[in-house]
Write a structure and sequence with these properties.
The chain is α/β, with parallel strands linked by helices and about 230 residues long. It is built from 7 helices and 11 strands.
Length: about 230
């Protein structure tokens, strides 16, 4: 579960990026987070991943409270999260298998766990025949699926996808979103930050709209030009 209570975030330069946000995302939900550029979405993602801490209020992620930069809970909390970035952030000198094994070893997985789990995850994202390829040998859509596999490989309870379709064409974007829906249907909480209005409108999920650091709408519905209509 993700829970924010009266959260505010002001940067050292005086910019108030988040202004009194209170919201809850239940376990197993699929949520789109939308809003115009500069609305506070990026800061909200940083709060959810523990990259920054709130100036005021409380952030709870999967049972962990994020309250200070030295909080010992943050590394444990991050193990419950898988994060997918727009720019993939794959290690170019490592194969697909080695990109995934790298993040598994970082949390203490042994060789047997790595050999067992990576092929299963790559089958899920339809890349089991590409595990020995390097990122430069893959298409953009395939690289993004590697990034999804990397986010999944440590079995997180929550996936946060930050503009995951930003570098993909419409067909591949739709395929990617369907994959995220499939992952959600398997029990993983999924939060997708996106500007892709058409994609949001195809799926009929919960849409949280952020503007000027505040939640302006939160309902199941359609994202329309910075606002969305609740489904009737």
């Amino acid at each position: 579960m993700i829970r924010l209570k009266d959260v505010e975030m002001e940067y050292d330069n005086g910019t108030r990026a988040i202004q009194g946000i209170t919201l809850t995302i239940e376990d197993g939900e699929f949520v789109f987070l939308v809003g115009p550029s500069g609305s506070g979405k990026s800061t909200l993602i940083k709060l959810l991943t523990g990259e920054v801490q709130p100036s005021f209020g409380r952030v709870m992620i999967n049972g962990f409270s994020i309250v200070s930069p030295k909080d010992r809970q943050i590394p444990m909390m991050r193990r419950t999260l898988g994060v997918i970035f727009q720019d993939f952030r794959l290690i170019e000198t490592k194969t697909v298998f080695d990109n995934l094994s790298f993040v598994m070893r970082a949390v203490g997985a042994d060789n047997q766990e790595i050999r067992d789990r990576i092929p299963r995850i790559l089958r899920l994202v339809d890349l089991d025949e590409k595990m020995d390829r390097y990122p430069s040998e893959l298409s953009g859509g395939e690289q993004q699926r590697v990034a999804i596999a990397r986010a999944l490989v440590n079995n997180p309870s929550t996936i946060i996808a930050d503009e995951p379709t930003g570098n993909l064409d419409p067909d591949r974007s739709l395929d990617l979103m369907r994959l995220l829906v499939k992952i959600n249907q398997m029990g993983t909480t999924v939060v997708v930050v996106t500007h892709a209005r058409d994609l949001v409108n195809r799926f009929g999920k919960r849409v949280i709209t952020i503007d000027e650091g505040a939640v302006i709408r939160d309902a199941v519905g359609r994202y329309v030009g910075g606002h969305h209509r609740a489904r009737t």
